[in-house]
Amino acid sequence: MTAQLVVFYLLAAVTVLSSLGVVLTRNVVHAAFMLLLALLAVAGIFLMAVAEFLALAQILIYGGAVTVVVLFAIMLTRSDDQPRADHSQRPLALLTAVGVFALLVIAFVASDVASLESATGVGTDTESGFEALGLGLFTDWAIPFEVASLVLLVALIGAILLARSAEDGE
Q1: Is 83 left (phi over 0), alpha (psi -120 to 50) or beta?
Q2: pLDDT digits (tens, 9 = 90+) for 56-81
Q3: Which fold, 1-78?
Q4: Contact 14, 41 (CB under 8 A)
Q5: Domain boundaries in the chain?
Q6: In sequence order, what DSSP letters do the residues of 53-113 get, joined into one string?
Q7: Whole-prediction pTM value?
């Protein structure tokens, strides 16, 4: 077994275990941190698959922004007098999870990985996908890219203002 395969199995185990932690923990803050760990492990898997842009997007967008938004939502809506929710839908959720897992396993077994490798263009002598994406973002798609960044900035400032006004009791 190669070192790369060992690292992949380690990252996969961290992803699965932290994902189970998200679902099984009763503390919402701990679930958010488990989600962050799972997202970072997925970014590591993307790095191993030579998908640098996806790894970077996973860390910045999901690992950073989404986790911060989830933590803000938890802080703003947290109340000590909320009753515990009953879990009457657990059997249906378990059945759905097992069904989705079975479909994913069937799709993985039925896929032809060798043909997918040639379709991605990895290993060609032309510019990498990361470089082509960067050129596209900052030439053809520069204005939509900047608009999206402004929308995210406004959302972050709004979340900070909401958190501050909730602390002040306004």
Answers
A1: beta
A2: 888 888 878 777 777 777 777 766 65
A3: Four Helix Bundle (Hemerythrin (Met), subunit A) (1.20.120)
A4: yes
A5: 1-78, 126-170
A6: HHHHHIIIIIIIIIHHHHHHHHHHH--TTPPPPP-TTHHHHHHHHHHHHHHHHHHHHHS-H
A7: 0.57
